[in-house]
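User: Could you go from structure to sequence for me? I need the amino acid at each position, not a summary. Structure tokens:
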């Protein structure tokens, strides 16, 4: 009998064309499916909680699949090491109820967007952060983040040329932390549109550079017009930190971000 197995996966997305399987390009999904198919000796299809873009990273992507074999579930992360590139690691594996779905049963997601704000770039962060030379007004960025909290129509923050989705989303927390030149934007919500977090980051940076005011930012949100917002932040600064399936764990993270 096939088991419904859930994996937590981390990856450096720099050299991949996103999570989703591609016909003629390397993807996270294809690498994991190939590895699992070799271990289970039969074709495996995985389902991801988030379809991260090309160049986006993850510390806590979650996938599930149905497989039948003799390997103990807890041994899967170790077995996968021999079949995956070093940029991908399976952190944990557990068996779930038959009807469990990583996409439909999650309570929310936590993303982090990293920015290096300094006159000189950090060579060791170029794969993982957006380098911005001009000083950013962190207070203005925090005021803008507060505008986005709660439930809104986020059409103004949706990527263009995407499959239509319900634009009504709830943001539980948007916080900005600064340590030295590193600024991290933490975003926790019940769901996200295509490019939404990167567009939020881009909008907050425009606020920090005084390209528009907090009132302008509020009008952009309410106007639901993507063309009024600036450029999408580059992919390398974004990381999927965690997908929540437990209300208690979600609240713990929200408390920690306050």
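Assistant: Here is the amino acid at each position, in order:
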């Amino acid at each position: 009998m096939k088991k419904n197995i859930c994996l937590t996966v981390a990856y450096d997305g720099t050299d991949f064309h996103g999570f989703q399987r591609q016909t003629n390009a390397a993807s996270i999904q294809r690498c994991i499916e190939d590895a699992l198919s070799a271990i289970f000796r039969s074709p495996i299809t995985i389902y991801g909680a988030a379809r991260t873009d090309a160049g986006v990273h993850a510390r806590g992507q979650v996938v599930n699949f149905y497989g039948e074999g003799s390997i103990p579930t807890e041994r899967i992360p170790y077995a996968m090491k021999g079949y995956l590139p070093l940029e991908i690691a399976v952190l944990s594996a557990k068996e779930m109820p038959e009807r469990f779905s990583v996409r439909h049963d999650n309570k929310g997601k936590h993303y982090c967007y990293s920015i290096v704000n300094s006159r000189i770039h950090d060579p060791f962060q170029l794969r993982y952060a957006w380098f911005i030379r001009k000083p950013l007004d962190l207070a203005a960025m925090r005021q803008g983040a507060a505008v986005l909290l709660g439930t809104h129509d986020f059409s103004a923050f949706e990527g263009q040329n995407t499959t239509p989705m319900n634009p009504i989303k709830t943001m539980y927390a948007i916080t900005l932390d600064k340590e030295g030149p590193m600024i991290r934007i933490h975003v926790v919500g019940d769901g996200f549109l295509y490019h939404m977090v990167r567009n939020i980051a881009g909008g907050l940076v425009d606020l920090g550079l005084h390209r528009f005011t907090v009132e302008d930012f509020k009008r952009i949100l309410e106007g639901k017009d993507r063309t009024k917002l600036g450029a999408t932040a580059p992919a390398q600064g974004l990381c999927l930190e965690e997908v929540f399936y437990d209300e208690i764990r979600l609240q713990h993270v929200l408390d920690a971000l306050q």
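One structural detail worth keeping in mind: The mean pLDDT is 95.
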